[in-house]
Structures are given as structure tokens and as C-alpha cells.
Amino acid sequence: MRRLLIALLATCSLSAAAADNWKPFPLDQSAYDYSGDRLRQAWPQLTRGFGDYPFPDADWVVRMASQHPQALEKTVTAGTGFTGQPEEAELYAQKLQDVWRLMFRGDFAQAKEQGLALGIGGQIPAMFAQVIYAMFLVPDQAEKHRLLEEVIAYTDEAGELVQADTVAQFGRVYAKARLGEELSVPVVLKRGYTTQIPNELKALLAKQPQQPFALALYGGYEAGVIRKVGKLVGKMTYGVSADNMEKYFQRSFQARDDLPIGHYEYANALTYVYGDDEEQKVIEHLERAVAIKPINAMEALEVAHAQKMLAQYRQKLAKN
């Protein structure tokens, strides 16, 4: 009965994924073709924001299946065609790599659909694609929130298995942090985000102390709390401070200085914490963000976002 229920849930999830009427990627995708061996060759650079993240080849599939029998059970029950046999691992790995290719290319709807069809392993790039799509391509706030909440729900359903993958961990806390920025303080408190976000980031950084994405997100979280409740209440109630914000971002830049999102998130944080007092520094980091040549669809959207922010700041300065 339990297996049948899981299978039905998997079928419902796939139907929902296929029904999503997502917009196509609005920018040129020609530079983000990672077919064949290109994906493996570019993998360290494509995933540099996550630190040392393993390439999902057949060896990785076999290792994860043997180390995490619960994940294997979910994968088998979802009808993915992979039952844990080593001879099946290569085909499953190829399908999983194709999902990552779709995600990096900006084919987000297909990445979600094909990723969820691979069970819990494919859920990782599927939900990564959904986070990017929600943040950059959904103008309606209610729909953006729904998509981010769905990401959290998917990772929560994975239970303890989410601890086995740092991208899954980051995706969940990133979704919570973005929701926390836009929801009211009472709602954020009711959901427990003010406790969950720092605790999940600390757990992630305990595994990867120099993960650039997690460090930048922590800095952004501290700045976001200050923006909402002020420096004094932020420090007294939530333990956040401008000094901590600066330290997290500097650690992130020391780890990787070539991530567009790191620079424009820092620009946002400076505005949240200092208002107009650090305008020149804000512009400097936005200029650094737009100077980075994107190597995947996510970075292209980040650079485009930074360009809009930079244009707004320059226009503002021109009026003064």
C-alpha cells in the first residue's frame, strides 16, 4: 500500500510538472550548450558556487544508491527504470546529466519535468531549475511564492535524504530566504524562518565552510533582517549585524570572486544596511557583476538583473 501511495504521488508530481505553463528563456542560449563531454569538462566551473560538487556519472549513481538505500527505494518506486543494478547506472546517469544540461541551458520547464521523472536524484536539478525560474522569470509575486514553497515542500518530503546533497540543502534554504524577504514579519515568524534559515545555513557551512553561495546567502539574510527590523532589534533579537553581513560576503568573495549573484547580492545588502551612504560601493559591485561573462542560463539572468540595477543607480546619480 505504501509503495502504491508513493507511486501515485510521483505520478501526480509529474502531471503537475508537465502542466506548468512556463515562459521560455528570454535570452540567447547558444553559448550554453554542454552536450557530450562538454558537461563534464565544464562541471567544476558550472558548479563553482557550490564548492566541490561531484559530477553525476555512473560511479556517483552507484555510490549514492549503496550509501542511501532510502533514496534507492524512492527511485525504484517512482518507476525510473533504475533498480540499483550497476549495469543500469550508466543509463540513469546519462538521463540525469541531460537534466543538468537543460537547467544550465535555461530550458527550465523541461528540466523540471524530466528531472522529476528520475525520482529523488533528478529532483535536485529539477528544483534548482524551479528556483531560478521563480526568481527571475515570474513577475507575479503570488506565483513566485507558490513555486518557492513547492521547492521547500519537495525537499522536506525527501526527509533526511536532503542532507546527502548540498545543492538540495542550499535550494531549500535559498527559497526560504527569498520568501522571508517578501513576506511580512508575522508570517516569517509563524513559519519559523528566522530560526530555520540561520540553522540550515550553519549546517551547510559546517560541511562546506567556503561554499560561496551559502556565505553570500548568509550575508544577504543578515542584511534582510536589518532592513525589516532595524540594526538594534536585529542584533538584540536575531543576532544579526552589519559586521556579520560584511564578514560573510568577504568570505564568499575570497572563495569565488567571479559569481554575478555574489556581487549584486552584496549591492542589495549594502543598500539594506546603509541606505544611500554606500552608493559608490554598490555601483562598484554591480559593475563587477555585469563584467562577468555568464557561462550558463542562471548567470545570464543574474547579469541581466545586475544590469537593470546598475542602470537604475546611474540614473539616480545623474538626477542628483
Automatic annotation (TrEMBL):
Q: Does the keyword Signal apply?
A: yes
Q: Which residues form the signal peptide?
A: 1-18
Task: Give the record's keywords alphabetically.
Answer: Signal
Highest taxon above the source species: Bacteria
Q: What is this protein called?
A: Tetratricopeptide repeat-containing protein
